[in-house]
Amino acid sequence: MSDAHESHSTELVAADEPIANPGLPEHTWRPTDVDPAKERRAEIQVSVLFMLSAVCTVLFCVSYFVFDIKDNWSTVGGLGASTVALGLSLAGALLFVGIGIIQWARKLMGDHEIVEMRHSAGSNESERASALADLATGIEETGIARRPLVRNTLLGSLALLGVPMILGLRDLGPLPGDKLYHTIWGEGTDEHPMRIVRDGIWTPILASDLEVGDLVNCQPDALMNPERYGIDPSEVEGTNAQIVKSKASLILHRMNPADIKPGVDAEGNSRANWDVNGIVAYSKICTHVGCPISLNERTTHHLLCPCHQSTFDLSDSGKVVFGPAGRPLPQLPITVDDEGYLVAQRDFDEPVGPSFWERDYYER
Protein backbone atom coordinates (compact mmCIF):
# COMPACT_ATOMS: atom_id res chain seq x y z
CA MET A 1 0.00 0.00 0.00
CA SER A 2 1.43 3.41 -0.92
CA ASP A 3 2.22 6.06 1.68
CA ALA A 4 -0.44 8.37 0.13
CA HIS A 5 -3.12 5.68 0.42
CA GLU A 6 -2.14 4.94 4.05
CA SER A 7 -2.29 8.65 4.86
CA HIS A 8 -5.79 8.94 3.30
CA SER A 9 -7.03 5.90 5.26
CA THR A 10 -5.69 7.38 8.49
CA GLU A 11 -7.57 10.64 7.80
CA LEU A 12 -10.83 8.69 7.20
CA VAL A 13 -10.43 6.82 10.49
CA ALA A 14 -9.71 10.05 12.31
CA ALA A 15 -12.79 11.67 10.77
CA ASP A 16 -14.94 8.98 12.39
CA GLU A 17 -14.00 10.18 15.88
CA PRO A 18 -15.35 13.35 17.50
CA ILE A 19 -13.00 16.29 17.87
CA ALA A 20 -11.91 16.51 21.49
CA ASN A 21 -11.98 20.31 21.56
CA PRO A 22 -13.81 21.92 18.61
CA GLY A 23 -13.09 25.41 19.97
CA LEU A 24 -16.43 26.10 21.68
CA PRO A 25 -16.40 28.43 24.69
CA GLU A 26 -16.80 26.89 28.12
CA HIS A 27 -20.40 26.10 28.94
CA THR A 28 -22.19 28.70 31.08
CA TRP A 29 -24.85 27.29 33.35
CA ARG A 30 -28.21 29.03 33.47
CA PRO A 31 -29.47 30.47 36.78
CA THR A 32 -32.21 27.82 36.85
CA ASP A 33 -29.56 25.09 36.55
CA VAL A 34 -27.75 26.10 39.72
CA ASP A 35 -30.44 27.78 41.87
CA PRO A 36 -33.41 25.57 42.91
CA ALA A 37 -35.43 28.65 43.90
CA LYS A 38 -35.09 30.17 40.45
CA GLU A 39 -35.87 26.80 38.89
CA ARG A 40 -39.10 26.60 40.86
CA ARG A 41 -39.97 30.17 39.97
CA ALA A 42 -39.45 29.42 36.27
CA GLU A 43 -41.64 26.33 36.56
CA ILE A 44 -44.43 28.43 38.08
CA GLN A 45 -44.03 31.07 35.35
CA VAL A 46 -44.39 28.46 32.61
CA SER A 47 -47.43 26.94 34.31
CA VAL A 48 -49.05 30.37 34.68
CA LEU A 49 -48.59 30.97 30.95
CA PHE A 50 -50.30 27.67 30.18
CA MET A 51 -53.13 28.55 32.55
CA LEU A 52 -53.53 31.96 30.90
CA SER A 53 -53.86 30.14 27.60
CA ALA A 54 -56.64 28.02 29.10
CA VAL A 55 -58.38 31.15 30.43
CA CYS A 56 -58.26 32.77 26.99
CA THR A 57 -59.75 29.64 25.46
CA VAL A 58 -62.61 29.77 27.94
CA LEU A 59 -63.10 33.47 27.15
CA PHE A 60 -63.28 32.56 23.45
CA CYS A 61 -66.10 30.11 24.17
CA VAL A 62 -67.93 32.64 26.37
CA SER A 63 -67.54 35.38 23.74
CA TYR A 64 -68.86 33.07 21.05
CA PHE A 65 -72.20 32.79 22.84
CA VAL A 66 -72.39 36.21 24.58
CA PHE A 67 -71.62 38.56 21.70
CA ASP A 68 -74.08 38.59 18.82
CA ILE A 69 -72.37 38.70 15.46
CA LYS A 70 -74.55 41.71 14.65
CA ASP A 71 -73.21 43.74 17.59
CA ASN A 72 -71.27 46.54 15.94
CA TRP A 73 -70.38 48.97 18.70
CA SER A 74 -67.41 51.03 17.55
CA THR A 75 -63.93 49.64 18.13
CA VAL A 76 -60.51 50.11 16.59
CA GLY A 77 -60.95 49.84 12.85
CA GLY A 78 -64.71 49.66 13.19
CA LEU A 79 -64.70 45.95 14.01
CA GLY A 80 -67.67 44.51 15.88
CA ALA A 81 -67.67 43.20 19.44
CA SER A 82 -67.88 39.57 18.38
CA THR A 83 -64.94 39.87 15.99
CA VAL A 84 -62.72 41.66 18.51
CA ALA A 85 -63.54 39.36 21.43
CA LEU A 86 -63.09 36.16 19.45
CA GLY A 87 -59.91 37.37 17.77
CA LEU A 88 -58.20 38.61 20.94
CA SER A 89 -59.15 35.59 23.05
CA LEU A 90 -58.03 33.04 20.45
CA ALA A 91 -54.82 35.00 19.81
CA GLY A 92 -54.14 35.05 23.55
CA ALA A 93 -54.73 31.31 23.84
CA LEU A 94 -52.22 30.54 21.11
CA LEU A 95 -49.75 33.23 22.21
CA PHE A 96 -49.56 32.17 25.85
CA VAL A 97 -49.14 28.48 25.08
CA GLY A 98 -46.40 29.36 22.59
CA ILE A 99 -44.54 31.61 25.03
CA GLY A 100 -44.89 28.97 27.74
CA ILE A 101 -43.30 26.29 25.57
CA ILE A 102 -40.44 28.64 24.62
CA GLN A 103 -39.78 29.56 28.25
CA TRP A 104 -39.90 25.91 29.23
CA ALA A 105 -37.27 25.08 26.62
CA ARG A 106 -35.06 28.05 27.53
CA LYS A 107 -35.12 27.74 31.31
CA LEU A 108 -36.00 24.19 32.31
CA MET A 109 -35.09 21.68 29.60
CA GLY A 110 -31.62 20.14 29.31
CA ASP A 111 -28.88 22.63 28.38
CA HIS A 112 -25.69 20.94 27.27
CA GLU A 113 -24.00 20.14 23.96
CA ILE A 114 -24.62 16.75 22.35
CA VAL A 115 -22.34 15.17 19.75
CA GLU A 116 -23.96 12.81 17.26
CA MET A 117 -21.92 10.87 14.70
CA ARG A 118 -23.35 10.80 11.19
CA HIS A 119 -23.78 7.53 9.37
CA SER A 120 -24.05 6.90 5.65
CA ALA A 121 -26.48 3.96 5.72
CA GLY A 122 -29.24 2.43 7.79
CA SER A 123 -28.55 2.08 11.47
CA ASN A 124 -27.75 -1.29 12.99
CA GLU A 125 -29.52 -2.70 16.04
CA SER A 126 -27.10 -1.20 18.54
CA GLU A 127 -27.47 2.25 16.97
CA ARG A 128 -31.24 1.97 17.00
CA ALA A 129 -31.13 1.01 20.65
CA SER A 130 -28.87 3.98 21.25
CA ALA A 131 -31.32 6.26 19.44
CA LEU A 132 -34.17 5.06 21.66
CA ALA A 133 -31.99 5.61 24.69
CA ASP A 134 -31.22 9.15 23.48
CA LEU A 135 -34.94 9.75 23.00
CA ALA A 136 -35.63 8.57 26.53
CA THR A 137 -32.84 10.83 27.76
CA GLY A 138 -34.35 13.76 25.89
CA ILE A 139 -37.75 13.14 27.42
CA GLU A 140 -36.14 12.92 30.83
CA GLU A 141 -34.30 16.20 30.28
CA THR A 142 -37.55 18.01 29.45
CA GLY A 143 -38.57 17.27 33.01
CA ILE A 144 -42.11 16.43 31.90
CA ALA A 145 -42.23 13.36 34.14
CA ARG A 146 -40.96 15.12 37.27
CA ARG A 147 -42.73 18.44 36.66
CA PRO A 148 -46.43 17.49 36.91
CA LEU A 149 -47.52 21.12 37.25
CA VAL A 150 -45.97 22.07 33.91
CA ARG A 151 -47.15 18.86 32.26
CA ASN A 152 -50.73 19.10 33.47
CA THR A 153 -51.16 22.79 32.68
CA LEU A 154 -49.72 22.25 29.19
CA LEU A 155 -52.02 19.29 28.48
CA GLY A 156 -54.99 21.21 29.84
CA SER A 157 -54.34 24.30 27.70
CA LEU A 158 -53.77 22.22 24.56
CA ALA A 159 -56.93 20.18 25.19
CA LEU A 160 -59.01 23.34 25.58
CA LEU A 161 -57.63 24.74 22.31
CA GLY A 162 -59.70 22.11 20.51
CA VAL A 163 -62.93 23.64 21.82
CA PRO A 164 -62.78 26.82 19.62
CA MET A 165 -62.30 24.61 16.58
CA ILE A 166 -65.40 22.60 17.47
CA LEU A 167 -67.41 25.77 18.11
CA GLY A 168 -66.25 27.14 14.77
CA LEU A 169 -68.01 24.27 13.01
CA ARG A 170 -71.33 25.87 13.98
CA ASP A 171 -70.52 28.81 11.73
CA LEU A 172 -70.57 26.59 8.67
CA GLY A 173 -74.30 27.18 8.70
CA PRO A 174 -77.43 26.61 10.77
CA LEU A 175 -78.17 23.07 11.83
CA PRO A 176 -80.73 21.59 9.42
CA GLY A 177 -82.82 19.80 12.03
CA ASP A 178 -85.45 17.79 10.16
CA LYS A 179 -85.56 20.16 7.17
CA LEU A 180 -83.71 17.65 4.99
CA TYR A 181 -86.57 15.21 5.45
CA HIS A 182 -89.37 17.47 4.22
CA THR A 183 -90.21 19.58 1.17
CA ILE A 184 -93.02 22.02 0.43
CA TRP A 185 -94.89 19.31 -1.48
CA GLY A 186 -96.36 18.21 1.83
CA GLU A 187 -97.92 21.62 2.55
CA GLY A 188 -101.09 21.10 0.50
CA THR A 189 -104.54 20.84 2.13
CA ASP A 190 -107.59 18.67 1.50
CA GLU A 191 -109.26 21.65 -0.15
CA HIS A 192 -106.19 22.68 -2.12
CA PRO A 193 -103.75 19.82 -2.77
CA MET A 194 -100.39 21.09 -4.01
CA ARG A 195 -100.55 21.61 -7.77
CA ILE A 196 -97.63 20.76 -10.01
CA VAL A 197 -96.70 23.64 -12.34
CA ARG A 198 -94.21 24.00 -15.18
CA ASP A 199 -90.87 25.44 -14.07
CA GLY A 200 -90.35 28.97 -15.39
CA ILE A 201 -93.84 29.64 -16.74
CA TRP A 202 -95.74 28.46 -13.61
CA THR A 203 -98.78 27.08 -15.43
CA PRO A 204 -100.62 24.07 -13.97
CA ILE A 205 -100.45 20.82 -15.91
CA LEU A 206 -103.42 18.85 -17.15
CA ALA A 207 -102.74 15.12 -17.20
CA SER A 208 -104.36 14.98 -20.64
CA ASP A 209 -101.80 17.45 -22.04
CA LEU A 210 -98.85 15.08 -21.64
CA GLU A 211 -98.00 12.54 -24.31
CA VAL A 212 -96.01 9.33 -23.98
CA GLY A 213 -92.31 10.19 -23.89
CA ASP A 214 -92.75 13.74 -22.56
CA LEU A 215 -90.41 14.94 -19.80
CA VAL A 216 -91.37 18.16 -17.98
CA ASN A 217 -89.40 20.14 -15.35
CA CYS A 218 -91.77 21.20 -12.59
CA GLN A 219 -92.12 23.12 -9.34
CA PRO A 220 -94.83 23.42 -6.64
CA ASP A 221 -97.52 26.04 -7.21
CA ALA A 222 -96.91 27.33 -3.67
CA LEU A 223 -93.83 29.21 -4.89
CA MET A 224 -96.14 31.60 -6.76
CA ASN A 225 -99.37 31.24 -4.77
CA PRO A 226 -98.43 30.52 -1.14
CA GLU A 227 -101.68 31.93 0.31
CA ARG A 228 -103.69 29.32 -1.61
CA TYR A 229 -102.07 26.65 0.57
CA GLY A 230 -102.02 28.59 3.82
CA ILE A 231 -98.29 29.35 3.63
CA ASP A 232 -96.72 32.58 4.88
CA PRO A 233 -95.39 34.37 1.75
CA SER A 234 -92.13 35.19 3.59
CA GLU A 235 -91.34 31.46 3.58
CA VAL A 236 -91.07 31.46 -0.22
CA GLU A 237 -89.36 34.80 -0.79
CA GLY A 238 -85.72 35.70 -1.40
CA THR A 239 -83.21 33.10 -0.19
CA ASN A 240 -85.99 30.95 1.25
CA ALA A 241 -87.51 30.62 -2.21
CA GLN A 242 -84.25 29.26 -3.60
CA ILE A 243 -83.98 26.72 -0.78
CA VAL A 244 -87.58 25.58 -1.23
CA LYS A 245 -87.19 25.38 -5.00
CA SER A 246 -83.94 23.41 -4.85
CA LYS A 247 -85.51 20.72 -2.67
CA ALA A 248 -88.85 20.61 -4.49
CA SER A 249 -87.55 20.49 -8.08
CA LEU A 250 -89.47 17.77 -9.89
CA ILE A 251 -89.61 15.97 -13.22
CA LEU A 252 -92.72 14.46 -14.78
CA HIS A 253 -92.39 11.68 -17.30
CA ARG A 254 -95.17 9.92 -19.19
CA MET A 255 -94.80 6.36 -20.41
CA ASN A 256 -97.02 3.45 -21.28
CA PRO A 257 -98.66 2.36 -17.99
CA ALA A 258 -97.74 -1.24 -18.83
CA ASP A 259 -94.03 -0.30 -18.65
CA ILE A 260 -94.22 0.72 -14.99
CA LYS A 261 -92.96 -1.74 -12.37
CA PRO A 262 -94.47 -0.49 -9.10
CA GLY A 263 -92.18 -0.78 -6.12
CA VAL A 264 -92.99 -0.30 -2.44
CA ASP A 265 -92.86 2.72 -0.17
CA ALA A 266 -91.01 3.06 3.14
CA GLU A 267 -93.73 1.11 4.94
CA GLY A 268 -93.79 -1.71 2.41
CA ASN A 269 -97.01 -0.62 0.66
CA SER A 270 -97.31 -0.84 -3.11
CA ARG A 271 -96.69 2.23 -5.27
CA ALA A 272 -99.28 1.12 -7.81
CA ASN A 273 -101.38 4.26 -7.22
CA TRP A 274 -98.46 6.72 -7.33
CA ASP A 275 -98.78 7.48 -11.05
CA VAL A 276 -101.56 8.93 -13.20
CA ASN A 277 -102.15 6.90 -16.34
CA GLY A 278 -98.42 6.35 -16.83
CA ILE A 279 -97.31 9.80 -15.59
CA VAL A 280 -94.67 9.46 -12.86
CA ALA A 281 -93.00 12.18 -10.77
CA TYR A 282 -89.48 12.03 -9.38
CA SER A 283 -87.08 14.39 -7.64
CA LYS A 284 -84.88 16.23 -10.11
CA ILE A 285 -81.92 16.15 -7.70
CA CYS A 286 -79.36 13.38 -8.22
CA THR A 287 -78.76 11.25 -5.15
CA HIS A 288 -74.99 11.25 -5.78
CA VAL A 289 -73.90 14.87 -5.20
CA GLY A 290 -77.08 16.80 -5.93
CA CYS A 291 -76.78 17.75 -9.61
CA PRO A 292 -80.03 18.56 -11.46
CA ILE A 293 -81.06 15.77 -13.85
CA SER A 294 -82.98 16.09 -17.12
CA LEU A 295 -81.29 13.94 -19.79
CA ASN A 296 -83.97 11.45 -20.78
CA GLU A 297 -83.57 8.29 -22.87
CA ARG A 298 -87.09 8.15 -24.22
CA THR A 299 -87.28 4.49 -25.25
CA THR A 300 -85.71 3.06 -22.08
CA HIS A 301 -87.16 5.57 -19.57
CA HIS A 302 -83.63 6.07 -18.24
CA LEU A 303 -82.72 9.43 -16.76
CA LEU A 304 -79.05 10.41 -16.96
CA CYS A 305 -77.22 12.81 -14.64
CA PRO A 306 -74.85 15.01 -16.69
CA CYS A 307 -72.35 15.42 -13.85
CA HIS A 308 -71.16 11.86 -13.24
CA GLN A 309 -73.39 9.77 -15.50
CA SER A 310 -75.52 8.18 -12.80
CA THR A 311 -78.50 6.63 -14.58
CA PHE A 312 -81.93 6.00 -13.05
CA ASP A 313 -84.78 3.85 -14.36
CA LEU A 314 -88.01 5.85 -14.10
CA SER A 315 -90.08 2.80 -14.97
CA ASP A 316 -88.70 0.88 -11.99
CA SER A 317 -88.99 3.14 -8.93
CA GLY A 318 -86.07 5.32 -10.02
CA LYS A 319 -83.52 2.59 -9.33
CA VAL A 320 -79.86 3.18 -10.17
CA VAL A 321 -78.80 1.22 -13.25
CA PHE A 322 -75.40 2.83 -13.76
CA GLY A 323 -72.98 5.25 -12.13
CA PRO A 324 -71.86 6.27 -8.65
CA ALA A 325 -75.26 7.19 -7.16
CA GLY A 326 -76.01 4.97 -4.18
CA ARG A 327 -79.78 5.50 -3.89
CA PRO A 328 -82.79 5.56 -6.23
CA LEU A 329 -84.43 8.87 -7.08
CA PRO A 330 -87.18 9.68 -4.56
CA GLN A 331 -90.62 9.32 -6.16
CA LEU A 332 -93.50 11.71 -5.45
CA PRO A 333 -96.97 10.18 -5.31
CA ILE A 334 -99.29 12.17 -7.59
CA THR A 335 -102.95 12.28 -8.59
CA VAL A 336 -105.34 14.76 -10.24
CA ASP A 337 -107.68 17.31 -8.66
CA ASP A 338 -111.31 17.98 -9.55
CA GLU A 339 -110.23 20.04 -12.58
CA GLY A 340 -107.90 17.38 -13.96
CA TYR A 341 -104.67 19.13 -12.96
CA LEU A 342 -101.76 17.10 -11.60
CA VAL A 343 -101.24 17.47 -7.84
CA ALA A 344 -99.12 15.85 -5.15
CA GLN A 345 -100.80 13.29 -2.92
CA ARG A 346 -98.34 14.11 -0.12
CA ASP A 347 -94.64 14.79 0.40
CA PHE A 348 -91.79 12.45 -0.57
CA ASP A 349 -91.50 9.55 1.86
CA GLU A 350 -87.69 9.94 2.00
CA PRO A 351 -85.21 12.85 1.87
CA VAL A 352 -84.29 14.21 -1.55
CA GLY A 353 -80.74 14.91 -2.71
CA PRO A 354 -77.40 13.35 -1.77
CA SER A 355 -76.96 10.85 1.03
CA PHE A 356 -76.10 11.90 4.57
CA TRP A 357 -75.19 9.98 7.71
CA GLU A 358 -78.61 9.89 9.36
CA ARG A 359 -80.49 8.98 6.20
CA ASP A 360 -82.23 5.61 6.22
CA TYR A 361 -82.53 3.37 3.18
CA TYR A 362 -85.14 0.83 2.28
CA GLU A 363 -85.35 -1.68 -0.53
CA ARG A 364 -88.03 -1.13 -3.12
Automatic annotation (TrEMBL):
<keyword id="KW-0679">Respiratory chain</keyword>
<keyword id="KW-1003">Cell membrane</keyword>
<dbReference type="InterPro" id="IPR017941">
    <property type="entry name" value="Rieske_2Fe-2S"/>
</dbReference>
<dbReference type="Pfam" id="PF19297">
    <property type="entry name" value="QcrA_N"/>
</dbReference>
<keyword id="KW-0411">Iron-sulfur</keyword>
<dbReference type="InterPro" id="IPR036922">
    <property type="entry name" value="Rieske_2Fe-2S_sf"/>
</dbReference>
<comment type="similarity">
    <text>Belongs to the Rieske iron-sulfur protein family.</text>
</comment>
<dbReference type="InterPro" id="IPR014349">
    <property type="entry name" value="Rieske_Fe-S_prot"/>
</dbReference>
<keyword id="KW-1015">Disulfide bond</keyword>
<comment type="function">
    <text>Iron-sulfur subunit of the cytochrome bc1 complex, an essential component of the respiratory electron transport chain required for ATP synthesis. The bc1 complex catalyzes the oxidation of menaquinol and the reduction of cytochrome c in the respiratory chain. The bc1 complex operates through a Q-cycle mechanism that couples electron transfer to generation of the proton gradient that drives ATP synthesis.</text>
</comment>
<keyword id="KW-0249">Electron transport</keyword>
<dbReference type="InterPro" id="IPR045603">
    <property type="entry name" value="QcrA_N"/>
</dbReference>
<keyword id="KW-0813">Transport</keyword>
<keyword id="KW-0479">Metal-binding</keyword>
<keyword id="KW-0001">2Fe-2S</keyword>
<feature type="compositionally biased region" description="Basic and acidic residues">
    <location>
        <begin position="27"/>
        <end position="36"/>
    </location>
</feature>
<protein>
    <recommendedName>
        <fullName>Cytochrome bc1 complex Rieske iron-sulfur subunit</fullName>
    </recommendedName>
</protein>
<dbReference type="Pfam" id="PF00355">
    <property type="entry name" value="Rieske"/>
</dbReference>
<keyword id="KW-0812">Transmembrane</keyword>
<dbReference type="InterPro" id="IPR005805">
    <property type="entry name" value="Rieske_Fe-S_prot_C"/>
</dbReference>
<keyword id="KW-0560">Oxidoreductase</keyword>
<feature type="transmembrane region" description="Helical">
    <location>
        <begin position="79"/>
        <end position="102"/>
    </location>
</feature>
<feature type="domain" description="Rieske">
    <location>
        <begin position="252"/>
        <end position="343"/>
    </location>
</feature>
<keyword id="KW-0408">Iron</keyword>
<feature type="region of interest" description="Disordered">
    <location>
        <begin position="1"/>
        <end position="36"/>
    </location>
</feature>
<keyword id="KW-0472">Membrane</keyword>
<keyword id="KW-1133">Transmembrane helix</keyword>
<feature type="transmembrane region" description="Helical">
    <location>
        <begin position="48"/>
        <end position="67"/>
    </location>
</feature>
